[in-house]
TrEMBL record:
Pfam families for the chain: GGDEF (PF00990)
Domain GGDEF: 324-456
Residue ranges crossing the lipid bilayer per the database entry: 21-39, 231-254
Annotated InterPro entries: Diguanylate_Cyclase (IPR050469), GGDEF_dom (IPR000160), Nucleotide_cyclase (IPR029787), Rev_trsase/Diguanyl_cyclase (IPR043128)
Protein's UniProt name: Diguanylate cyclase (GGDEF) domain
PANTHER family given in the database record: DIGUANYLATE CYCLASE DGCM-RELATED, REGULATORY COMPONENTS OF SENSORY TRANSDUCTION SYSTEM
An annotated Gene Ontology molecular function: diguanylate cyclase activity
UniProt keywords, alphabetically: Membrane, Transmembrane, Transmembrane helix
Gene3D superfamilies the UniProt entry points to: 3.30.70.270
């Protein structure tokens, strides 16, 4: 990594610094944000005032509308009960009564009250509604007295409605007549008419007041919204500039480099200063890593002394092609132990290197040459059969002739013995490598310095 830093320190540096662009955009954003916070607070204040007035208006409208609507619906339920005697109508009547009560409880606080005029009209409407509900309940209670149904089947509030002693003394038919008279008499209709008038008056009073208050608040909100729109335009410009800078200086360079990264190739130096610097660092690291990877792969598959393939590489290659049309030649250096014992390992290493060079010069590039032992080499010859046996023998003779020329003063000549076998050999054994080894053994037993073909 030190070498990488040294190379990068001397490299020219170009490109827009994205950090500086971001600092400028950040400064403008902070200033705009402060202004927007101030405008937002002012707008929020106006909005809260608007919400408050709207809430008062809505609450008044809901209460008034619900009272008028449910009053008619409850009257319908009471009349239906007088006609059918079905307790379900009583249940529906009191269910609606509970809804009205809950609504009035929720809207009964000072915060949700509207103007004094609308509140007054609404209170009068509520009072009229309660009067009508009491009369409706009383009429249904008279009807219930005439039915063979236990009061336990009705809501407790309904069962607790008391009947006057005079009405209790009436017979069933008279009680029905009395109940119908309650709903049909003139004062009942007058109360219903008053309820409707008070609801309408409450609507008008609340609407007039809220319209006045909302006019003032709306004008204030318009001013604040105009200021916020201005800040919005500023932020839009900032966002566009930020997007374009990121697109041109980061995203596009990255997209152009994806395929290079997938293929472990160097990436072009494009975009911002930071991206260019990153590309330079990556490319240097990639080159360094590639070199080291190649070195590791080479050392894992090659013999360190001779440079040919090692035993592990031979095993993989042999397992892959052992059933193909190949020839196997096992090469053994004659008297190699003598070189090491008498002349030392340096001389022995020289012998092995020289043998390797000579073998490599005589065989084809596609032939796989491996050192599988101390002085033992194996050559996997692709697409080679018994028809080439004489050519192989000739190659071995040429190798031995060249090695003899390497004789040093006081040293015996270098020579090799070779055993070979081919895929189309006669009387093949179960393994071509073993057959080549048998041929090598026969060669060494018959004087060495030459090549023996299995089956000949």
């Amino acid at each position: 990594m030190g070498a990488i830093r040294d190379r990068l320190s001397g490299a020219a540096r170009h490109g827009i610094r994205l950090s500086r662009v971001n600092i400028v955009l950040l400064a403008v954003t902070v200033i705009g944000s402060i202004g927007m916070i101030i405008a937002t607070n002012r707008l929020n204040s106006a909005y809260q005032q608007l919400i408050e007035e709207t809430g008062k208006y809505i609450s008044t409208q809901q209460d008034a509308g619900m009272i008028e609507e449910f009053s008619g619906s409850m009257l319908s339920e009471s009349r239906s009960f007088l006609q059918t005697g079905d307790p379900a109508h009583v249940m529906a009547f009191y269910s609606q009564m509970d809804v009205i009560r809950r609504q009035l409880d929720r809207s009964g606080t000072a915060e949700t009250k509207s103007t004094a005029a609308s509140d007054r009209y609404l209170e009068e409407a509520v009072e009229a509604f309660r009067t009508l509900a009491e009369q409706d309940a009383y009429a249904m209670r008279l009807k219930a007295e005439t039915l063979p149904v236990s009061l336990d089947s009705y809501p407790a509030e309904f069962a607790g409605t008391e009947i006057s002693p005079e009405d209790a003394a009436l017979d069933a038919e008279q009680k029905l007549v009395k109940a119908q008279e309650i709903l049909d008499r003139t004062d009942y209709s007058a109360i219903r008419s008053r309820l409707s008038d008070r609801v309408d008056a409450s609507h008008r009073a609340a609407s007039e007041t809220v319209q006045q208050q909302m006019g003032v608040t709306t004008a204030r909100i318009r001013q604040e919204l105009l200021l916020l729109r201005t800040f919005g335009v500023v932020f839009l410009v900032i966002a566009v500039l930020a997007m374009l800078s990121n697109l041109l200086l980061i995203i596009l360079p990255i997209n152009r480099s994806v395929s290079n990264l997938d293929n472990r190739e160097e990436i072009p130096e494009q975009g911002s200063f930071e991206m260019r610097n990153l590309a330079r660092v990556y490319n240097e690291v990639l080159r360094d890593s590639t070199e080291k990877q190649e070195e590791l792969e080479y050392s894992a598959t090659h013999d360190a002394l001779t440079g040919v393939y090692n035993r592990a590489a031979f095993d993989r290659e042999y397992d892959r092609c052992r059933n193909d049309r190949i020839g196997i030649a096992i090469v053994d250096v004659d008297g190699f132990k003598h070189y090491n014992d008498v002349y030392g390992h340096d001389v022995g290493d020289h012998v092995l290197r020289r043998v390797t060079e000579t073998i490599g010069s005589k065989f084809r590039k596609e032939d796989h040459i491996s050192r599988i032992g101390g002085d033992e080499f194996v050559i996997i010859m692709k697409n080679t059969g018994s028809a080439q046996s004489e050519d192989i023998k000739l190659k071995i003779d040429e190798i031995n002739e060249e090695l003899v020329k390497e004789r040093r003063k006081g040293m015996p000549p270098i020579s090799v013995s070779v055993g070979a076998a081919f895929w189309d050999r006669e009387n093949p054994g179960p393994d071509i490598l073993k057959d080549a080894d048998k041929a090598l053994l026969q060669m060494k037993q018959n004087g060495k310095l030459g090549c023996r073909i299995y089956g000949e």
